[in-house]
Amino acid sequence: MNRTIYFNELAVEFLVGNKIIHQDFDSILKNFQTDQDLTSLAGVVLIEHVSFENEDQFIKVLMNKDLSELSKLHVIVDEIQFNRIVAGLAIVEAAGGLVENSNKELLMIKRLGKWDLPKGKIEKGEGKEEGALREVEEECSVEVESEGYFDTTWHTYFDRKGKACLKPTYWYEMSCLNDKKMAPQLIEDIEEVKWVSSAELEDKMQDTYASLRELLKKYIEKNTSNN
Questions:
Q1: Which residues pair with 70 in a beta bridge?
Q2: CA–CA distance from 4 to each of 77, 178, 196 (Å)?
Q3: What is the pLDDT of residue 21?
Q4: Pairwise CA distance, residues 58 & 175, whole Å
Q5: Where are its TM segments located (predicted)?
């Protein structure tokens, strides 16, 4: 099963136990060994092997180096190696919602200058769906109900203490029951809460995070196939 994790804005697809189907790669790296192996490349890159002794260094490069010239990175690993590679990252679970109103508009928030979806950390003892509902209601002051699980995104970041973290975010489709008191949760740096039409969504996707952009593409595809 492949797993895509976002390191900053770079999508890294770990090809776990799968054979590579032919694809046009700009570069194929037989064996990752040093920082320069990645920082000198551009476009879509395949790494065929990361040795055991280089796994820690590989994660450090992904977390710390400027890899903006890469558009996507594919890495061949097995299940055991994938688990080893991410073992040094602290797992911080979060949940959020793709909320629609009766006009089929999507609820979006603007946080720190970027368009985003309402989401947040799951509290201790809280279920994923429960946490998603709570976060949406807290961040946007709306009443919602869940329509079921949609997808999971994964991204990395450094916390305030400088610890490297891996955050899986569990997304649920939701419908809005009441938005009469809709307002941004300012304490969470949310500047704006807005119902976004399908016509507006493409523009908003240009000013959001890469992991969220892919999630929204899946959301649009699902809605298109259902119409």
A1: 43
A2: 13, 35, 27
A3: 62
A4: 42
A5: none
Q: What pTM did the predictor assign?
A: 0.92
pLDDT in tens, 106-138: 999 999 999 999 999 999 999 999 999 999 999
pLDDT tens for 18-72 read 666 667 899 999 999 887 888 889 999 999 999 989 998 999 999 999 999 999 9
What residue type is 73 in one-letter code? L
Residue 64: in which H helix or E strand, if any?
A: helix 55-64
34 touches 14 (CB < 8 A): no
* Residue 132 sits in the same domain as residue 180: yes
77 and 115, same domain (yes or no): no
103 half-sphere exposure, CB direction, 13 A CA radius: 9
In this structure, the strands spanning 164-178 and 90-91 are parallel
Asked whether residue 102 falls in the same domain as residue 206, the answer is: yes
**Strand residue runs (E) in the chain:** 3-7, 10-16, 27-29, 43-47, 70-77, 90-91, 94-100, 106-111, 114-116, 119-121, 143-158, 164-178, 190-196
CA nearest 61: which of 45, 80, 82, 37?
Answer: 37
